[in-house]
Amino acid sequence: MARSLNKAMLIGNLGADPEVRTTPGGTRVATLSVATSRTWTDRGGSQQEKTEWHRVVAWDRLAEICERYLKKGDRVYIEGRIEYRQWEGQDGQTKYTTEIRAREMVMLGGRGDARFEGSAGAPAGRPAEGDYSDFSNEALAGEDDLPF
Hints:
The chain is mainly beta. It contains 1 helix and 8 strands, in the order ββββαββββ.
């Protein structure tokens, strides 16, 4: 069978604090609302902007990290796959949703930037480099000897 690829990459801002819940089986799930925008100049020379909203779902340890470190307005990089789901609502109508199932999340926007990943081969939410379990901006305050 031929290989295929389902990969989504977003850089945007959170429209709200992460919504985190626990499934009946005890698994943590975070839902993020991420806005991406593009701008262009129309034929009349006016600046135009369009914002798209993306539903992002993070599971397990990555969900816990999102809950702990992310808040409304934060800039993030999300990498994952596109999933389509459908279910029957209480009104009997079929409901549909499209979401990004996050595999990796990188916090953007300051000295406290960090990268977190989850994959089938490693515990979800495992830091890509170092241990960020006690990460805080205060802990990084004395690191001013950077060459750039």
